[in-house]
Amino acid sequence: PVFTTPHLIHHVQPNIKLILLLREPAERLYSHYYHLGYGSSPEDFEVDVSASIRYLDRCRAKSSLRSCLYNRTLFKEMPTPLFASFYDVHMANWLEVFPRNQIFIMRTEDFDKSKKKYLLQLFKFLNVGDVEERVLDRMSNLAHKYKSVRKDKAGPMLNHTRRTLRDYLREPMKRLASLLHDEKYTWDDIYIGN
């Protein structure tokens, strides 16, 4: 597409400050899969991931990755929302329209470990000013609002599927890390020991 969501937002609100929370792509896909009601088991997910990779690879043999990720027909045919895990392509679209200093980016895994630290950084980014320690403590200790009952019922992703996705998404994650000038967006620290 010539115009994407970033273009529309920029047209209405060019000075907006954007906040982006990125989750490890394979785990994001697994949660998204159950959230949208695609399947009911880790085995279903593995079959659907393999099919989605085949669909996407077939498209990529003829078109650019970006073109494939925005292909409405492919979007409807794929049995998983794999397209959303290509953070590099989507981030490039946003950075074509908005300067990097208007986008606050953090990883879910980092935020979950150090909520107070990232909230302070976020408040600074938003020019909120000082926040009382007790308010910050309360915010840091809030429980997750959304819980995926379907995902919890299904259980964890199969290790084989996780490895398949990590391998398949390795290059896009490297491109994202390069785009953001930050190696943590390869999620290699998460993968060590897994």
Automatic annotation (TrEMBL):
InterPro entries to which the protein is assigned, alphabetical: CS_Sulfotransferase (IPR052654), P-loop_NTPase (IPR027417), Sulfotransferase_dom (IPR000863)
One Pfam assignment: Sulfotransfer_1
Domain Sulfotransferase: 5-161
GO molecular function: N-acetylgalactosamine 4-sulfate 6-O-sulfotransferase activity
Domain of life: Eukaryota
One annotated GO biological process: hexose biosynthetic process
Record-given protein name: Sulfotransferase domain-containing protein
